[in-house]
Amino acid sequence: MARLFELPDSRLAWATERDEDLVVIHQYLMVQNKIPKFDPWKNSFDLHFFQQGLALTQDDLDRLNSYWKRAGIAQIRLTETHVGEYARERDKVWRSEQRRSMRDELQHGPSEMRSQLVREAWERIAEFPPPHHPYHEYKAIQAARRQKELENLTDLEVSRRAEAARRALKNLNVPVPDGPEPAPVIEVPKTPINNLTGQAAILMLRASAAKPDLAAKVVARIPAEECIALLEHDLPPEVQTLLVEAALG
Predict the structure, then answer these.
(1) Sheet of 56-57, strands arranged across
(2) pLDDT tens for residues 128-183?
(3) CA–CA distance, 54 with 44 (Å, rounded to integer)
(4) Contact 206, 233 (CB under 8 A)
(5) Least confident of 88-97, 99-108, 187-196
(6) Which residues contact 145 (CB under 8 A, 6 or more apart)?
(7) Using an 8 Å Cβ cutoff, are 227 and 243 in contact?
(8) Residue 193: pLDDT band by 50, 70, 90 thresholds?
(9) Which pTM was predicted?
(10) Phi and psi based region of residue 75 (left: phi greater than 0; alpha: psi -120 to 50; beta: remaining)
(11) d(CA 149, CA 171)
(12) Does residue 34 surpass a pLDDT of 70?
């Protein structure tokens, strides 16, 4: 049920079908009055889910499950399935309207009608077909494609990427020596670049990923704490291994 995907900030979220939204809303209404008024999460969830029509994040689902568990209500564990038009709809205003309409219907409709709506929704959810590619499979395919691309890079492309990283470092006011040949500047810098962090580190790692020795030199200039933080970014497996080794010392 639903499609798992990654948000730009690296959080996981679910593109849900209408039936999944309905059961989530039904159980949310059962505990909304038990959520402490001083908990800022409730206002944030109401805004994102009902007003802005955003995807249901895994963080929000975990929080809901914690409230349902305290109230003795069955928790909801979403699983990946093939998704239909509702889940693929990009119009967030329309989605927010659909959710508010379901909320009003569940809040004010007769008890028997509410029970029937929820029961039928669960029955349809149980019949959802499996996904074409689960999230972990999709990520593996992406990683394989990136690796193949890196293996097929020409020396010219490596130099271009190194030059792009060098320009980015200059924009970040990181001391990088000038020179007409970008690749040698990064491989054997005249002025050592220490404590690479943030976007500069990411650019350097991606530019050097095709050359393990060069990537190792880049990692050597990244603080251990930053190595751990960089593991959250979309980097080739070989580079991630180097970061783990550096973080462990």
Answers:
(1) 3-6, 12-15, 56-57
(2) 888 877 877 777 777 777 776 767 766 666 667 667 766 665 665 544 444 444 44
(3) 11
(4) no
(5) 187-196
(6) none
(7) yes
(8) low
(9) 0.58
(10) beta
(11) 27
(12) yes
Tokens of 87: 């889940």
Q: How far apart are CA 227 and CA 110, in angstroms?
A: 56
Q: Note the helical H segments in the chain.
A: 18-31, 40-45, 58-70, 85-88, 92-108, 111-125, 135-151, 155-171, 182-187, 198-208, 212-220, 224-230, 237-248
Phi, psi of 14 (to 5 degrees): -120, 130
Distance CA 214, CA 182 (A): 13
Structure tokens at 22: 């309905």
Please state, in angstroms and as integers, the Cα–Cα distance from residue 26 to each residue in 66, 111, 139, 190, following that order. Answer: 16, 12, 32, 64
For residue 147, the one-letter residue type is Q
The pLDDT assigned to 174 comes to: 45
Cα 244 from Cα 110, distance rounded (Å): 57
